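Researcher: I'd like a candidate sequence for this fold, 200 residues long. If you have to choose between options at a position, lean toward the conservative one.
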């Protein structure tokens, strides 16, 4: 099987996250993408929203896609979420499978500074999303550099927008229309639970 890990804060998950997963599945014939909401990202001081809310929103976002699974592994583990630990978990859960790691361009450029980065390169094929405003030349140079680690890297240009979780949170706080940012079920969940300052 071809199994891809997609980690992040997902605070909240939005339509670009969803499109990214769907495109990766199609482009690389992945059998499954597993979404891992982080308990505490090592690169962020904290998240706005409680773990179980972010987990529930991810599950709602992908409930009709049988090729995407949402895992509570990192949340249950607690503490800082390191990619190498989650890949080790996947190795044990899906023995004999090909593992992939989905990243954005910014993360890709710093992968060699991540905790136990050499083990990450050894464990997974890196799939990197390239947006229109990303510098493809910089990414290609970095991919060549990572060959020193025997890393397998693929860069995929995806015509997705510029949605970010930060932008979504600001829009919710300002009571702006978020129908193009979020699936309806996620918006409804946010409204019902009064998240991100959202109120009737």
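Model: Candidate sequence:
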């Amino acid at each position: 099987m071809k199994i891809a890990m997609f980690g992040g804060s997902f605070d909240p998950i939005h339509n670009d996250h969803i499109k990214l997963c769907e495109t990766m599945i199609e482009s690389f014939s992945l059998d499954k993408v597993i979404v891992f909401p982080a308990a505490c990202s090592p690169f962020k001081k904290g998240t706005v929203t409680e773990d179980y809310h972010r987990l529930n929103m991810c599950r709602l976002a992908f409930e009709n896609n049988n090729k995407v699974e949402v895992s509570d592994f990192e949340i249950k583990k607690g503490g800082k979420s390191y990619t190498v630990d989650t890949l080790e978990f996947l190795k044990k859960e899906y023995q004999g499978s090909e593992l992939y790691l989905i990243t954005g361009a910014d993360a890709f450029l710093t992968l060699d500074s991540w905790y136990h980065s050499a083990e990450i390169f050894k464990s997974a094929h890196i799939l990197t999303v390239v947006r229109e405003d990303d510098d493809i030349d910089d990414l290609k140079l970095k991919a060549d550099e990572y060959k020193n680690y025997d890393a397998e890297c693929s860069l995929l240009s995806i015509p997705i927008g510029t949605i970010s979780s930060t932008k979504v949170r600001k829009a919710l706080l300002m009571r702006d229309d978020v129908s193009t940012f979020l699936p309806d079920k996620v918006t409804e969940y946010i409204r019902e639970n009064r998240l991100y300052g959202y109120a009737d």
